[in-house]
Amino acid sequence: MLKCRTVWKKLAPLTRASSTVCRQNVRRAGFNNGRIPTYVPAAHMSTGPAGGGRDLQMYAILVGATAVGAGIYLYQTLKGDGKRYDERIDEISTRSYMKDLEEPATPIESEPPVVEATETEAVPEPEPQAAPSPEEPASDAETVIAIETTEPPPAEEPVVEAEPVVEAEPPAAPVVEEEPSAPSEPSPTELTELTEPSPAPVVESESTAAESTAAEPTEPQPEVVVAESAEEPVVEAEPVVEAEPPAAPVVEQEPSAPSEPSPAELTELTEPSPAPVVESESTAAESTAAEPTEPQPEVVAESGDSAAASLDVPSHTPYLLIGGGTASFAAARSIRARDPGAKVLIVTEEPDAPYMRPPLSKELWFSDDPSVTETLRFKQWNGKERSIFFQPPSFYIKAEELAAAENGGVAVLTGRKVVHMDVRGNKIKLDDDTEISYDKCLIATGGVPRNLLVIERAGEEVMKKTTLFRKIEDFKSLDKVSRNVKSITIIGGGFLGSELACALGRRSSEFDLEVIQMYPEKGNMGKVLPEYLSNWTTDKVKKEGVKVISEALVKSVVCKDDKLEIQLKDGRLVKTDHIVAAVGLEPNVDLAKSAGLEVDSDFGGFRVNAELQARSNIWVAGDAACFYDIRLGRRRVEHHDHAVVSGRLAGENMTGANKPYWHQSMFWSDLGPDVGYEAIGIVDSSLPTVGVFAKATAKDTPKAATEQSGTGIRSESETEDTATSPVASSAPAPAVVQHKDEYGKGVIFYLRDKVVVGIILWNVFNRMPVARKIIKDGEEHADLNEVAKLFNIHDD
């Protein structure tokens, strides 16, 4: 208001002077116009007044506009000045109030230093041990403001606080003693700082430091608040130091940085008691009542949960492998071989570490150990026992220790699913919203078992009596079912269906179990083997005690009277207690959408190049990879050895090898210990085939082969030995081979454009390098009988 009055005093004379001048000008203009006659043309006809009235009107309009503009400007100026004046007055009036509010925001509860004082001894000239707050530096004439909170805490959580102590300027002014004020809850700023665990510094004066150390073993000092751990927040009183000497300044204790204690604090940290202790003359008697005070449990629980979640999963890993199957383990082993200090993290949905899947449908079913479902150990055909797990648990390190491991290692994060993949940001998100960043990533998600649509649509009762065989849990479940039911029907005539049929057929006589196998083909493995060999295999499966129903197309499945009725399209009806659906594998490409990766429309799976690369730092291996074979074109393979080979190659390329996929993986299947075969390349019964057979001997069985190689997983015994190149005979092409009813051992060649693209070794083992060399050469052969001699099938 003072400013407005001053402005008005300055502008009022100017306004009055301008008004006087305007009136004088108007009067003078009227007199002049009256004295000077105006010349009016004779021919001019006008309805308006004669004379200079128009000029006077224009002058009046200009003067009026000027006055209005000046008034508007004056109004805006006065209004703005008034607003700024009010804001300044408010700022000045609230400055002291804001100062009071800012002081409690300083972190005082995390780990405040403590100054001890006794009743008999005064503290002579204590030196400040804690760094003062950057907002309010300590001074001699400063007032210590008490901490006040507006929200009362629960009654069972009292907190001791300090009452404001006014520091007196005269030398002999006493210091007001501390008294416990009303309990209060820590502020949000204090709660934030309480979540940072660190050792609590203890600050003592020079005169009492030695006494506390000496008195500690015999008689502990009474405590106001005892902080048992860094995770338990305690609101403590702000320490006050009595200043008896005239020149002794009162030290205002501010919380020091929790992570970097001062040298004096480091000296005091050697004492056994890690908790800060506040003692004074007035609080010594009240310490007993304050000791049972419990710190806020909700803060401790919240910080503990977040700390456990952060420790469980590393936030970053150089090598991330998605999937816990054979391909991931082979890649991890390859990465560590080329980079011994590599840190590899495997994330898998399954609750188990990486293991081999083939024994789940082969050797485990022939074990005599009744606890095989728990031990998961089996005897190979050569009699040696081993586990299905690639390595024992001691081989892996904990996921939370991976980042700090000096020599690196392999960690497995079980029971976690990757639900989102950010390719540009190089990070993934788990099903619990945890994010992990990576430098290089391998996708080895494998596949999920397919099911028949008629079974999926049949309802929940039918699904409960159906097994989709893939994991350890499926093996345990089917083993239990086979011991408690009377009939099991296996739908599918491929590798898995035929292996399970033979395995369960062996139990048919022991447990009085009926085993039925049905498939749409004419014989077992009809999509792989030639028709004559498929029929022979079917007879072999029947001898194992399996009832085979060929050319069976399922029309519907219903549950009646606790039995499953399978209606076939040709009218046949099959009743059974349980169904095992073994109708193929669907590659798991759930991450393709979020990652923006291409899925092959013909073969399925992630589309990758010859180096198994989908992006510059993303590779795919195993069943989920649709790769480019430099010899056979684009393919997708679902076999154990392919997982080993592709995983090993992907691991090498992740460490900079840049190798193409030229190694032809093999696969094998055993119909018990007496009949087995190994295959490589493209084996499709729709291709032309040439078979060369010989009489089998006692050593031409899977059991004998494993005894010779020393392992039941024959793909692991494969080497990169260089085989001799087959010599093409100059003789004309042989006539059609006449097949007999007995096929002891032999070689089946699959041809495409007269070039061998696939080979099956029937009861011929440890000859895979020769077959791999033939496919790699890609030459035409006039006489395949001569080529078959390279496999020594005629040797006794």
From TrEMBL:
Family: Belongs to the FAD-dependent oxidoreductase family.
Protein name: Apoptosis-inducing factor 1, mitochondrial
Statement: the UniProt record of this protein carries the keyword Ligase: no
Domain annotation Mitochondrial apoptosis-inducing factor C-terminal: ranges: 650-777
Any one Pfam family match given in the protein's UniProt record, by short name: Pyr_redox_2
Superkingdom of source: Eukaryota
Composition skew (Acidic residues), residue ranges: 229-241
Any Gene Ontology biological process: positive regulation of programmed cell death
Cofactor(s) needed: FAD
Gene for this chain: aifm1
